[in-house]
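Researcher: We're reviewing a set of sequences before deciding which ones to prioritize for further study. For each one, I'd like a predicted 3D structure that I can look through quickly. This is Ribosomal RNA large subunit methyltransferase J. If possible, include the structure in token form so it fits the rest of the review sheet.
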Amino acid sequence: MNYRHAFHAGNHADVLKHVVLLAHLDALLRKDGPFFVLDTHAGRGRYLLQGEAAGRAVAAINPVDALLAYPGSPLLAAQAMREQDRLAACELQPEEAAELKALFAHDRRVAVHARDGYDAVRALLPPRVDGVRYARGLVLVDPPYEAQEAEYPKVVAAVREVLQRWPQAGVAIWYPVKQRRSLQPFFRKLAGLPARSVLLAELLVRPDDSPLRLNGSGMALINPPWKLDEAIAPALPFLQRHLGEAGASTRLEWLRRDEG
Ligand code: SAM
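Model: Here's the predicted structure for Ribosomal RNA large subunit methyltransferase J, in token form for your review sheet.
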């Protein structure tokens, strides 16, 4: 495991992922009932920017008038959550997990697990914390795709497991786009899952003509909350304008949508 998210934190893929994550959390916050978030590949929670500005999304954790750190997915989730909500954050790399544990040492709403996030789907779902069952929530699956093709079957199997164990949950999967056509088998698998709906939100910052670099990324949203597509829609052209190069594009598309 050589991947360290610090080399990628705050890039266009992180920004897309976190904008969609925040929109999903917003939808969960609309109801009073508690929700549970499982972050299967959580990272260290906070990344130093070394002077590189990353926009307003990071201003909240930067009390002085300078952008020093970029928040990762578990920190964004914890910042959005209320007293009644809970987060389980899994991270396999020991140093990253230790940093994440330190970050949340004083937040009793957050449990950090130094373990495999895919195994955690079986171990932690359906969520039950201190005797409370959580009907609503979100599973974020954000693996490093280090082993490339080998990651996709693991992701699909994990989503299948979530749907069986916790059918009320939404699942958000981040995926890289190098050449989009190579993702077709993955999309076919997602469309074939026993889910009510599957939505894709993508930002390509340049044409997807090279298999060697990250030209963009997407979030596959399984059983997204009502009107999440409408919440995300205006953000995509904004991100394209601010982060894209010549030939950039966005996509918001239902892979599957069962009406009624
Ligand atoms: N979700 C984070 C965020 O948005 O801030 C970024 C996560 S980063 C893309 C992927 C993380 O997964 C890395 O920190 C890596 O060490 C960790 N990782 C790799 N394989 C894992 C596994 N099987 N279970 C849990 N974590 C894993």
